[in-house]
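=== RUN LOG ===
request id: a7f3
mode: sequence -> structure
chains: 1
length: 367
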Amino acid sequence: MTPDSVLSPEQKDHFLNHGWIKIPKAFTEEQAAEMIQNVWTRLGMDPNDKSTWHTARTHMPSHRTFDAAQFAPRAWAAICELCGGENRINPSSRQWRDSLIVSLGSGAPISKHNHNQPNRPPTPPQTLQGWHVDGDFFIHYLDSPEQALLVIPLFTPIPRQGGGGGTALYPAGMRAVAAHLYAHPEGVSPRMVPRGEPGFLPAPAGTAEQDQGKLNWFNTVASRGGADGHGGDDFVEVTGDTGDVYLLHPLMLHSSTNNPLRNVRIITNPPVSLKKPFCFNRDSEKKQKEEDEQDEDSGVYSLVERATLRMIGRERDGLQGWKITHEREKVVPERVRIQERMKQEELKRLALEKNTEGKKSVTMVRS
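=== RESULT ===
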């Protein structure tokens, strides 16, 4: 590692080749406990009564924000290094939120004959139907700055033997995503539908078209995993201890998994965005900046940019002449409306708890 580097050469190589790294013990169990202290009130469930666990997986709205650089300084430093320096990152990305993602599973938790194993095996990753890349709120281009990295902090442990609801990753699928975006500089929808094709714009809420085939592109790519005879070896499951943080390339295909162990699994996905789009031709950009006497940004490719270029076989030469052909656009996902309704319901339950038990002190900044 260089004096300014927090990532080892091995970690950098792993990210370039596989699109993910894990920062172990990036925050403490005490920090995690404070973060999730009122999760059961917010869910409206009883941690000691699984009959109240009416939803297998919940994407919760946020109520509070906290500074990632203080909460998990090693993880934040690694994020900055992967993205080419903190000066390239949107300052709002330092603010993580308590928009928790809770997996509780469903059905009977374990076999009667073996209390350490689930009563049914996890679903083979190739057959999962939830594969996607993050970023349901913008039109995607190869250089999109809105989703610069995917972050997964673990607020509870996820067993390494699997079956605990850890996010599934398909590193080989990144090449298909990168090639698709490279081939469509006009932009694609969050579901990878090219501009101008049927389904590019979201269907109205509540219509059959809204859900029809919405993840088909991703699921088809992931279904090819293991075709070389290695079975599930192409896939990775996010596991680890409380306080571990996974950092994933923005084009990483990933999916939720079932949780047959029915262990409580709590994570979140704080977004990281850039001030400017990714640049895949930094030599020409550097020359232009020298002519304009601008030096805010280095001419050095970030590790994320290098990984993307490697996916499409252009790490050495860059993408001279490639550029998007339409304007960048935002998309308002149905998720926003759903989570606003959930937030109001959570606030009612939290207010009721405050009236009956008193409000516990927290050190986080309200959003």
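=== NOTES ===
DSSP finds eleven helices and 13 strands in the chain.
The chain has a mean pLDDT of 88.
=== END ===
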